[in-house]
Amino acid sequence: MKKTMMILSLLFVGMLLLPAVVLSSRGTTPESSLLLQTVREQRLKDIQNHVSFPQTTGLYHTYSQMTTLLQTLTATYPSIMSMSSIGKTSEGRDLWMVKISDNVSQQEAEPEVLFMGAHHGNEKPGYEVCLYFIQYLVEHYQNESTPEVREIINTTQIYILPMVNPDGVEADTRKNAEPNHGFFGYSPIVTSYGVDLNRNYGYRWFLLFLLPKIYSGTTSFIDSNEAYHGPRPFSENETQAVKQFVDTHNITISITYHTFGQLVLYPWGYTILPPKDKPVFVSIGENITAIDHYTLSQSIGLYPTLGDACDWMYGTHRVLAYTIELGTSFAPTNPATLQEICVTHNLVNLYVCQRSHSLN
Ligand code: 0X9
Ligand code: ZN
């Protein structure tokens, strides 16, 4: 009798667990399940070992602290890391692009991936994720317990532009610091400051005029508006620099980090039509959300807008370009929250590098 009861209760518990098993495996293709297992283990190790986080007196790096950190790392790991300025902001700050790869000074026939942070200067976790990733990669290259990092660096050309908008980061503003000259830039005097860089990419701008009602809530002709798109496409030094870089590289996958909302977004943001590559976007996106437990959606699901970086990268160069909206606030003040965001998206970034090898 006792035995039958035990078997029955085991069966009951088993039945309860079954949907959980089925659910947790959905959206995780076999290609990534091994990686997910190893990255989860890594993640735990990281949380335990990363004693030096945060490295600065404040929680977030300043622009100059970032510059020093990147210069120090480049000097320490010159064979796998290089940095170069791909442009200057209106206030004269360099836009630092980091490359991490073996034979770092050479252009090789290896997949190229691009990570960017801080299009919006007040969204600081985005660049911290990038800095954490850079440091993690170079510091684990020789580490015998992380052979996958060595493999990734040896076989991938990883580009990271942590701060697209350093002027905005320094001023803690969404927009950059560009002086504006009124409607379409025609005023002789300075009327306000700043352009929303994630509205300034030149993809399908004509729709602003054709369908103004659809986009007027999220992008603006008014230069003092927080979502001002600028006087013309690619009017800004920062977007021009990104354009020039992406135009001259063969980027396969890209992640642009923003805050906030715990979302993984794929194009399009300007239309409800699905992108041609939706199955790939969803397959990779589901593997990303299996790591960070965020919600996967087409960008327009958040809201429709024009001129964002990912629509341009995908529309012009077919880059599999994701926007990730990190966390639950623009700039969390709790170090543990920031650390969790960085550690988790370090794994996302490693996965993306690996996945870039199995694309057509
Ligand atoms: O509005 C943006 O630029 C992004 N959100 S944020 O809160 N970081 O400003 C979202 C861009 C995603 N693209 C679209 N929704 N079209
Ligand atoms: Zn943003």
Question: What do these coordinates show?
Answer:
The protein is of the alpha/beta class and 360 residues long. Helices cover 43% and strands 15% of the residues. The chain has one domain (2-10, 29-358): 3-Layer(aba) Sandwich (Aminopeptidase), CATH 3.40.630. The protein has twelve helices and ten strands. The strands form two sheets. Strands 1-2-4-3-7-10-8-9 form an eight-stranded mixed beta sheet, with helices on both faces. Strands 5-6 form a two-stranded antiparallel ribbon. Helix 10 links the parallel strand 8 and strand 9 (295-298). Helix 2 (30-49) packs antiparallel against helix 12 (335-355), helix 4 packs across helix 12 and helix 10 (278-292) packs antiparallel against helix 12 (335-355). The longest helix has 24 residues, at 2-25. The structure holds N~2~-sulfamoyl-L-arginine (0X9) and zinc ion. Residues 119-120, 123, 198, 258 line the site of zinc ion.
Précis, in short:
This protein is of the alpha/beta class and 360 residues long. The chain is 43% helix and 15% strand. The chain contains twelve helices and ten strands.
